[in-house]
Amino acid sequence: MFPMALKRNVLNRCATSLHSFGLLLVAVFALAAQPGTAMAAPAGANLTLGIENGLVQESAVEVGTTAQSLADLIGNATGRKVIWEARYSTAAANHGAGGQGFDFMFSKPANLTATLLAKGWHLVAVAKLPIEFGTDFIAQPCPGKPGEALLGGPTLAVLGVQDAPAATCVPVAQIWKSPSAILLTPAKGSLIDKVASKLWLEHASTLPRIVHVEYQNAITGFMQTTRAAVIGAVTPMISKTWKAEGGVVLAHQALPFWALLAAPGTSPDAVDKVRAALVATGRDSFLNKSLHIDGWENGNPKTYAELLRWLDAKP
Fold first, then answer.
1. According to the model, what pLDDT value does residue 98 have?
2. The domain containing residue 98 runs over which residues?
3. Statement to judge: residues 194 and 245 lie in one domain
4. Other Cβ atoms within 10 Å of 284 Cβ, number
5. Which first-to-last residue range defines the signal peptide (predicted)?
6. Alpha-carbon torsion angle 25, 26, 28, 33, nearest 10
7. One domain for residues 156 and 215
8. Which residue, of 211, 233, 254, is where some domain finishes?
């Protein structure tokens, strides 16, 4: 059995640092967010940049470095000073609230990007990865049985599962109907949680038991630390490493990647200048190294609208 203290440490260790980071941002980068639909700032005024990280927990240094680098690029392209503010939330992605009060928005949750585009925001550019972005299901390998995943067993106690099924090895094709399957996703209602449910229902008629954790990257840390025999919903950047180290990847669902958007009313000239500056950055630029991406491209707004339709479609 794993002590409950370990569960709290693994699943919630980022809460204190995140709270401190939030207080620092409020003190140093406080912005006057206005209710309603965001509009472009008057000519000559400072521009504001929102950084919506969704439910991926990062250090204050990483977020600050990336945000300031992006703000500098926008400022150089437009000839305006840019002030940024970072947020972590599920609600902003679900309700499109993340854009209020900002002139530009760097959005990681694709459903937030889609919602803002539907409200008249402009797609400036989309980040690029060497692999297709999305959501993957990962599982522990079954010792001595290639192509099978280990599910159930006493490791699930650390998740608070008191009636855990016995440990068993399950062929990948049979995972979807296994009574031993437990799905580990980020916060309930988050994009990855929704995508995980949709992806599962494409293979089975009912969902398995689902356990939620606060942050997306807590899933992999938890599975690596405790070796818990669950099925985790993660991004391809994580599943690629997981597979290379001997883990099992069960399925993949493509998703549109991170995007930079401009508020309604932003001049086409400003949008074009910022887009050109982003697309011109190389893989080795400071901004792209900070984000761990290959660069930027124009992107297609239709891919985000298609995501919302897919999420809303009934199985």
1. 55
2. 47-131+256-312
3. yes
4. 8
5. 1-40
6. 110
7. yes
8. 254
Residues β-bridged to residue 181: none
CB 74 within 8 A of CB 262: no
Q: Are residues 146 and 250 in the same domain?
A: yes
Predicted structure pTM score: 0.78
Regarding whether 263 and 122 lie in a shared domain, the answer is: yes
Cβ-contact 105, 261 below 8 angstroms = yes
| DSSP character at residue 163 | T
| Same domain flag for 107 and 152 | no
CA-based nearest residue to 145, from 126, 172, 179: 172
- Give the tens place of pLDDT for each residue, 49-98: 999 887 666 667 788 889 999 999 999 999 999 999 987 555 445 545 55
Strands (E), 30-167: 47-52, 82-87, 104-107, 122-128, 134-141, 148-151
Give CA torsion, residues 173, 176, 182, 184, to 10 deg: 90
Which residue is it, tokens 């400022």?
Answer: 75
Q: What is the CA radius of gyration of the chain?
A: 21
- Spatial CB neighbours of 34, under 8 Å, sequence gap ≥ 6: 100, 101
pLDDT tens, position by position, 261-313: 999 999 999 999 999 999 999 999 999 999 989 999 999 999 999 999 999 88
Q: Is residue 22 in some structural domain?
A: no
Q: What angle do CA 273, 278, 279 make, to 5 degrees?
A: 100
Residue 252 has pLDDT above 50, yes or no: yes
Which CATH number do you get for residue 114? 3.40.190.10
Degrees, nearest 5: CA angle 260-265-267 = 75
